[in-house]
Amino acid sequence: MQGETTADGRSAFRDSRWVAALELLVVPLLLWLHAAGLFPKPKLPLLLLGWLSLRLRGVGWRRIGLTRPRSWPVTVAAAILIGLAYDALDVGVILPMLRRLTGEALDLSQFAGIEGNMGTLGLLLAVGWISAAFPEELLYRGCYLNRAVDLFGRGRGGWAVSVALSSVVFGLAHHAQGVTGVYDNVIAGLLFAGLYLASGRNLWLPILAHGVIDTTSAVALYLGFHPV
Known about the structure:
The chain is an all-alpha fold.
């Protein structure tokens, strides 16, 4: 009887759209509080919230895509090519277009001091993979995107709305880069969501592509190249 009660409770929690909506609202709320200086960096609390949500619903990390891809060599090669191509497109086309649109340059003041500094570069590369690429894909594509689908439905329309919403929230998480940075990361979020879906909802392709983009961007800043 106890097992049946637990299963029924998990099913009710998993199927509740009110709970899904509340979880989806908590993320931008914490991001807004952080932007206003009222809350510390929310990434770890949000990951813990995602883990708790998965746990209470009886859903494992494998269920949302943290599992071995069909082919590691193909996934790694695709991530490198896509990451390099997107970074070139971003610097050459997207950022100049966004600057004309917003009238503001990308704010990279948080990365001041990296130029010519190998120690800072090494630290930034480690942070890019450990604190950005991996956890952000778990959070925004793995947890948030799938939770949005629980609310909006698994038809094409539901997936489209969920991809757009998760990408906007991902962009807002990068508010420190200014309005141009927010728009730029919304576009990047759309790319990562597309890679997630194209790979059969496997997280490793967007994780690796995300890491490649952050790596090439850091190396460019180290070499003294500052995007528009």
